[in-house]
Sequence to fold (264 residues):
Amino acid sequence: MTRNTRILMQCIYWAFVLYLLIPLALMMLMGFKDSKFIGFPIRDVTLDWYLAVFQDSQVLNAMGYSAIIGVLSTAIALFMGTWIAVALTGRSFWGRAILLGLTLLPAVIPGVISAIAFRIAARLVGLEPGMWAIIWSHAIHNVPFVVLVVMARLSTLPKSYGEAAQDLGADPIITFFRVTLPYLTPAMIGGGIFCLLLSFDDFVRSFFLGGYEPTLPVLIFAKLRSGMSPEINAISTVVLVLTAVLGLWAERSMRGMKKRAAND
Fold:
């Protein structure tokens, strides 16, 4: 790669970074505006909008509600996705491609179509709109992402690990829990965090399958109907910061696990 090409690639990279960061910075900045309307100039700043986020019981309840849905749907998606990935990896049988395609299908269906389908299916099985209907839809939507991440990690597992465990007398179940599962843990953490963020941010399925209690995205949408205000920017900034902290924690955890696995 020539020097000019390298400089061009660096310019493109930093232009892309600015393209991503400038809107986020403006969103955070507008949360400090001492006015009820979004726009420039900012004549004075205040922390009232951010303080109001932690004093608004409706916002806090929506955050907690979204977090509960995210954790439960992620747990279900991790269990189902890991099981499917283990069942499909390293095996060749008739219909494997069809099963894998059907497993990944929820990830590529447009959100509105998926939400309508889930709403019809929920009514068919007698599942009332509310928390469990949302958890069910989020879990099915998140399973493909767990499958892809776990299968990618599982494909790098040396066969000698399982063979060594079997030579020492371990049966397939013990081998899975003592060898395979610890090896998959970093991928499961990464996939779990990704699914948690997807669920927390999901609007369409939560809107179609929700009951009287709104998730945070649905609540923000309801507030947007009365106009954009610094309150929405403050809520979004708080969620952004929490998301960034969670992502950094997950990254450090995965790196630490990989280093310990390499040392062992």
The CA atoms of residues 38 and 229 lie 6 Å apart. The domain at 47-263 is CATH 1.10.3720.10 (MetI-like fold). The chain has one domain: 47-263. The chain has eleven helices and no strands.
